[in-house]
Design goal:
The structure is a single chain. This protein is of the alpha+beta class. Helices cover 26% and strands 15% of the residues. The protein contains four helices and eleven strands, in the order H-H-E-E-H-E-E-E-E-H-E-E-E-E-E. It has helices at 2-7, 15-65, 93-96, 183-186, and strands spanning 74-76, 90-92, 118-122, 147-153, 166-167, 174-176, 189-191, 199-202, 208-211, 223-224, 230-231. The strands form three sheets. Strands 3, 4, 5, 6, 7, 8 and 9 form a seven-stranded mixed β-sheet that branches. A two-stranded antiparallel sheet has the order 1-2. It has a two-stranded antiparallel sheet with strand order 10-11. Strand 10 and strand 11 form a beta hairpin. The mean pLDDT is 90.
């Protein structure tokens, strides 16, 4: 009799109980997913910061082997066999730094799915074809940014760099400085704060940090020199450059 009574008891869930369980799981998932997404974002930002630090250190090592010259964004020459960007016309900076970097993954930001996302300053620091600058010309290496998280800006007329909006997966190998007119506006590849409103920046002394894009000072151009005079920067690159620099700029050699 006891066995029959036991067999007669209900052992499954009712529809209401099942719906309650599903609702609880959905509530827990809604609470956990944002935290997981935030953790994933932080992990990607950390990986990107590590990558940009390696690129910055590679630049320092390159200068040590090449008479203190800063690697060019794009230099005249023919690429070596196995180059990442094979060409008979010129060599992009990742191929120039290849012996100091194991893979192109080092120049990639994990937040960018098509392209790379870590870009070199153009033209003030990286230079073009046959006009390299020397490390000795950099007055403040710990405040000078040759590399940054970068992408194509969808709202280039916005004056506040912290409000720039990135066009997804349109990043390239360079970020433009204001002196690079008219391309600075026509092809607005610029630093971007894609990591919780911060952008990773690599500095001339080899360190890297996550900073607000506005700290680079791209919005202060034309700028103001130490005595209040108009500053238009390096005459080698800037149209009308007067060799006067704004101390708020972190994108130039001064």
């Amino acid at each position: 009799m006891k066995l029959q009574a036991f067999r007669g008891k209900r052992t499954g869930f009712t529809l209401i109980e099942l719906l309650v369980v599903i609702a609880i799981i959905a509530i827990l998932a809604s609470l956990l997913l944002p935290a997981l997404a935030k953790a994933q974002g932080k992990a990607k930002a950390t990986q990107c910061l590590s990558n940009i630090r390696q690129v910055s250190l590679a630049t320092v090592l390159y200068a040590g082997d090449y008479q203190e010259y800063i690697v060019l964004l794009y230099m005249n020459g023919v690429t070596a066999p196995g180059a990442w960007w094979p060409s008979t016309d010129g060599i992009w900076w990742p191929d120039s730094l290849r012996s100091y970097m194991a893979t192109t993954n080092v120049i990639a930001c994990p937040m960018v799915h098509n392209g790379y996302g870590i870009a070199m300053n153009h033209p003030d620091i990286g230079g073009w074809r046959d006009k390299p600058a020397k490390f000795s010309s950099v007055k403040h290496p710990s405040d000078t940014v040759p590399y940054a998280d970068s992408g194509l800006i969808a709202n280039p007329t916005e004056r506040n760099p912290d409000l720039w909006i990135e066009t997804k997966d349109m990043a390239t190998l360079y970020y433009r400085t204001p002196a690079n007119s008219p391309y600075y506006t026509d092809d607005p590849q610029r630093p971007i704060g894609r990591h919780d409103l911060r952008g990773n920046a690599g500095f001339m002394d080899g360190h890297a940090a996550a900073i607000r894009v506005s700290l680079l000072g791209l919005q202060y151009y034309p700028g103001k020199g130490p005595n209040g005079q108009t500053a238009t920067g390096n005459p080698r690159w800037a149209s009308g450059g007067n060799n006067i620099y704004d101390p708020r700029w972190m994108w130039d050699l001064e």
